[in-house]
Amino acid sequence: MMDVHHAPQYLPDLVLDIIFSNLELPDLLSCMLVCQNWNRVINDTRSETWKLICRRKIPKELLKSELLSQLHSHKAKLRALYHSWNPDDCSMHIVVKQNGFTLHRNPVAQSTDMARTKIGYSSGKHVWEITWTGPLGTVAMVGVSTKEAPVHCSGYLPLLGIDKHSWGWNLIDNVLLHNGVSHGSYPLLNNAPKYQIGEKLQLILDSENGTLHFEKCNEFLGIAFKNLPKTKLYPSVSAVYGNTEISVVYIGKPLYG
């Protein structure tokens, strides 16, 4: 890495953009502390820096895909990449695709498999978009978990919510589960329809108030869980169906509330 404390601060924005675009995120954060001018260039969501990094990190077809269509800046798309599925924190039967946003559950019999995102939160309010793009099978769960929650078990079970370290919504029977105990039906709507493959769910974690809820097509589905612990929680899914695929996109902070 270059010696940022002795580098010239008067370089044109375009030159700074090219330099910054070759750095990794931790180095960019260090550069933001050097001077106001560097901070300005890096903080600008319209900066060429983010566009150039995106082109290096994310395939062109994915940048323009429906999957990332809700993200309107290159900085937001790059941030979502850093919040995507963690290939080092999932079941051995799950493969995270090269784009990082989509996982594939291999066809293994009598196995329930879970995956978590790379980044969890214990403060603030955050929104993720989760989409099941393959068959659901007999158990298909979405929710949050801590690092202590297991990512695999034998049989076809509601793994996400099976112990005190995870909270899950089973899309098959519309039941909430935590610590192995049912927490009632969900969504909290009259005659709530079942989830359909391809629908986009918004998972909203409010760490300040200790709540988790979901939205679909901008419709509030009710509070799923309250009194969540003040520890890092990670958006998670557990699946049983072979070859199913699930995508996650970090949207950021809620527009309202």
UniProtKB/TrEMBL annotation:
CDD domains: SPRY_Fbox (cd12907)
Cited SUPFAM superfamilies: Concanavalin A-like lectins/glucanases, F-box domain
Record keywords, A-Z: Neurogenesis, Synapse, Ubl conjugation pathway
SMART domains on file: FBOX, SPRY
Entry GO terms, CC: SCF ubiquitin ligase complex; synapse
Keyword Aminoacyl-tRNA synthetase: no
Protein name (record): F-box/SPRY domain-containing protein 1
The organism of origin for this protein: Aphis gossypii (Cotton aphid)
